[in-house]
Design brief:
Number of strands of chain B: 10
Order of helices and strands of chain B: EEEHEEHEHHHEHEHEE
Largest sheet of chain A: 10 strands, mixed
Largest interface: A-B, 22 and 28 residues
Shape of chain B: globular
Oligomer: heterodimer
Strand content of chain B: 25-35%
Structural class of chain A: alpha+beta
Number of helices of chain B: 7
Bound molecules: adenosine-5'-triphosphate, magnesium ion
Helix content of chain A: 55-70%
Number of domains of chain B: 1
Number of domains of chain A: 2
Number of strands of chain A: 12
CATH superfamily of chain B: P-loop containing nucleotide triphosphate hydrolases
CATH class of chain B: Alpha Beta
Shape of chain A: elongated
Number of helices of chain A: 16
Helix content of chain B: 25-40%
Order of helices and strands of chain A: HHEHHEEHEEHEEHEHEHEHHHHEHEHH
Largest sheet of chain B: 6 strands, mixed
Radius of gyration of chain B: 17 Å
Distance between the termini of chain B: 18 Å
Chain lengths: ~400, ~230
Amino acid sequence: MIFKIAWRNIWRSRTRSIVVILAVMIGIWAVIFMLSFSNGMIESYIDNAIENQISHIQLHNPDFKKDQESQYFIENASGLEDDLRSQVEVESATVRSLATGMLTTSKGQRGVQIRGVQPTSEASVTKLDQKLVEGEYFDPETDNRILVGKSLSEELNLKIRSKVVLAFQSLDGEIIYAAFRVIGMYETDNNAYDESNVFVTQQDLNRLLGKENIGHEAAILLHSLDEIDPVQSRLTESRPDLLVENYAEISPEIELFNTQMQMSSTIIIVIVMLALIFGIINTMLMAVLERYKELGMLMAVGMNKVRVFFMIVLETLMLGLIALPLGMGLGYGTVSYLSKYGLDLSTYSEGMQEFGMSEIVYPTVNSGLYIQLGLAVLITALLGSIYPAFKAIRLRPVEAMRKV
Amino acid sequence: MNIIEATGIEKVYNPNKIAVHALNGVDLTIEQGEFTAIVGPSGSGKTTLLNIIGGLDHPTAGSVKVEGTDISTLNDNQLIDFRKEHIGFVFQAYNLIPVLTAKENVEFVMLLQKRSQQERETRSMELLRAVGLEDQVNKRPSQLSGGQQQRVAVARALAPKPTFVMADEPTANLDSKSTANLLDIMARLNKEENITFLFSTHDQRVIDRARRVVTLVDGRIETDETKF
Ligand SMILES: Nc1ncnc2c1ncn2[C@@H]1O[C@H](COP(=O)(O)OP(=O)(O)OP(=O)(O)O)[C@@H](O)[C@H]1O
Ligand SMILES: [Mg+2]
């Protein structure tokens, strides 16, 4: 009967209860929305980084990682590539040559990372061919062609067929100057990347560096994230001469980003719950004060303090439990909708692109959040009910009933 | 048999500020089956005395024994339990839980006593019939008249099979017809079921129905008459 009383008591001040239910509901919805949003951003950032730049696993000459100098190459690049491709988990693999150098045009110069790629396998690993916004992809028939980033081309006023000069050190230490002609411009979600990376064919780069069949970086795309660990440990064993790293090791900022997002989500939950606690305390305190005489009567006729306390807590929990499924339903609906159609942030996305995130965010929620939120709401309701419940049991029946 | 023995009851309100001496040494014994009115001018201490005898308040001095238990030594929690088992209450107003029906209100204390569903069911119906409300069992207090509400309160007070029923001005808010009706019911329950009633009142018509009248003046018993 205590349940019945508590339930009916909630609806005595209908408006007040509905207001607090709405507040909790909106709080829950806001938390789900914000967290799914940041979750979606993290995922898009990671996916972007993996699919467009770093892949799942990379192999380098261990010295290259330290110095980034072309002399630390991997021998027999084609052999390595064949070897990698033969692994069942591998979806695609490519080996590239890298050089740090200077790109010079009549307008000025820029320090760039020169990426010597094999057109076909590079396309299958990083979809470079699909990122072209102007011009064409490499054509095997012609030498000394270069792809530059769209943003770099704008800065240096480059057009298709513009001529640029690349300057970099060859393997025997001489500075090489080589003329390339722009055949295409690409664009990724990451402006900073586009400004500092140019693509030539591996064949051209190796010839200029002065050695056939070398590479600096092997990149592997696997069928799924779960395969990273086994493949990584297998490769570490079979190629002790190379450094085998997964995406998180290559790009530690991803992990950092991830934990930071996680932390700010926790803070958001705590802030929202704190705000709700005060709303709940206020509502329940009013409910208790309003019923002072009645509570006095209940205690007079033999309802003990534990029961009175429990009744107030129960009323508060019920408010929370009504709000919980509503808020979750609303949140779930919003997220389902947005994860399908995406949230277009192109109006605000100037800054985001700098950091390698796409313009359209697809919010996602891991189901653990719902459990976490359920607990958070219960705890909030409990905390919010304690003070009013104490207030209720501290009353003395004689005094409560004397007040008119 | 004496079911209530109050000796040397004193009550001082606000002992630290301006002290109000509400009771100045009251001795009162009540026997099983009495139908007693506490009367006296306003401020004479009727409510204070009933609250102390009913275990709602502690006396400043003196002791109250109900069926041999000295309730003036019990702490708040023990008092709540004692009241639940031994004392039925009818107040001037705010007797009922507004969100429960008449029947649920009567069942409520039995529920606190952990009586079985079956017992609650039969006893609440029986009591509501005894107070003439068998047609109103599923109405909430707001749907009942003041007199009907007080009758439900009497039924509720009797539900736990208390040692006695205390009623502080139970008819103060009622018209004369409802007053007479409530008194009829109380008198009948007293006579037929031998239930002990101790009530306070200002109303001469209620005083006339009492078999014993204890008059308080300035916190002292001035007269104590029993009619035959
Ligand atoms: N909680 C309290 N604090 C201070 N004084 C009180 C308190 N309760 C009662 N009094 C005082 O004690 C005296 C007795 O009050 P009590 O309520 O017992 O009188 P009463 O006979 O019931 O009066 P009434 O007929 O008006 O109900 C009065 O002077 C009253 O003002
Ligand atoms: Mg009084």
